[in-house]
Amino acid sequence: MPAEPQPDSLDPRFAPARSGASEQVALEIRRYLEAKGLEPGDRIGTEQELATEFGVSRPTLREALRLLASSHLVRARQGPGGGIFVASTPNQGMGRNVSESIATMLATESVTLPELLEARLFLEVPLAGLAARNADERAIRELEAAVDEAEGHTPGTDPFNRADARFHHLIASAAGNDLLVAFTSWILEVLQPSLVARIGRAVVGPEIIRQHREILQAVRRGRPSAAERAMRLHIGYLSDVVRTLDERAG
Fold first, then answer.
1. Which DSSP string do the residues of 72-127 spell out, in sequence order?
2. Beta pairing, strands 43-45 & 83-86
3. Which DSSP helix (H) or strand (E) runs through 83?
4. Which of 32-42 are b and which e, b meaning 16 or more Cβ less than 10 Å from the residue's Cβ?
5. 74, 110, 119, 129: least buried by Cβ within 10 Å?
6. How far is residue 29's CA from residue 181's CA, in Å, rounded to a whole number?
7. Residues paired with 74 in a beta bridge
């Protein structure tokens, strides 16, 4: 864990901010998190320490922290050993904001499941190709384990759902692009639960597993085009199930 801040250090972390410049303070702290590679749980300092370093009032500092907290980047903890801590990395915070926005759109019916699945094509298909280019042996073993974990379970049940979500998360991670992972976090956090609720019992478990194995095989062999094709067919299958259920309901 990075060393705790030293406000009196000859090498200050932050340049003094203009009075009332809460946005500048928030930006400087965000840059500090990125530059130092701080992780969730790392301590940044106390309100007083940060206000002193920036040369701003406590209300100004608190407004800056509120801006950062609204982006899920920091959290405050009271009591002995308390202070301001990292809540999530900038990429993780961005992912949560995207997920919350899409969840709101879905809840208010300003976007539909078919539309989200269509968007998923433009995200997960290239990710599968990148995974085929970049996956190492460990990533492939983890993908194999995720597919195996789904075997013998019924779609819509917790074991199957966990294995399915883990497979897609691992594909995104294996792609090796943290920004794309952040942009696609809504797929697991918002779309997958909604899909399970809508079509969980309608999909064919062995077919899903077969499709995952096709993606895995292409990744293992380092064939980006085949991985993209297999992922496109997989998402197309889910879209067809949604369309069929909607037609029956209509």
1. TSEEEE-STT-EEEE-S-HHHHHHHHHHHHHHHHHHTTSS-HHHHHHHHHHHHHHH
2. antiparallel
3. strand 83-86
4. ebeeeebeeee
5. 110
6. 23
7. 86
Find, among 139, 19, 39, the residue nearest to 92 by Cα.
39
Token match 């077919």: residue?
A: 207
In one-letter notation, the amino acid at residue 89 is T
Both tokens assigned to 31:
């840059």
Domains, the chain, in order of start with CATH, read 22-88 (1.10.10.10), 97-249 (1.20.120.530)
What is the length of the chain?
A: 250
Q: Which amino acid is at 149?
A: E
pLDDT in tens, the chain (250 residues): 444 545 444 466 666 655 458 888 988 898 888 888 888 899 999 999 999 988 888 989 999 999 888 878 889 998 888 899 988 877 777 777 777 888 888 888 888 989 999 999 999 999 999 999 999 999 999 999 999 999 999 998 999 999 999 999 999 999 988 888 888 888 888 888 888 888 988 999 999 999 999 999 999 999 999 999 999 999 999 999 999 998 888 7
Cα 8 versus chain centre, distance = 37
Tokens of 43: 């301590």
On the 0-12 / 13-18 / 19+ scale of CB atoms within 10 A, 111 is middle
CA distance 90 to 71: 8
35's tokens: 């530059």
pTM: 0.68
Left (φ > 0), alpha (ψ -120 to 50) or beta: where does 41 sit? left
β-sheet bridge partners, residue 85: 43, 75
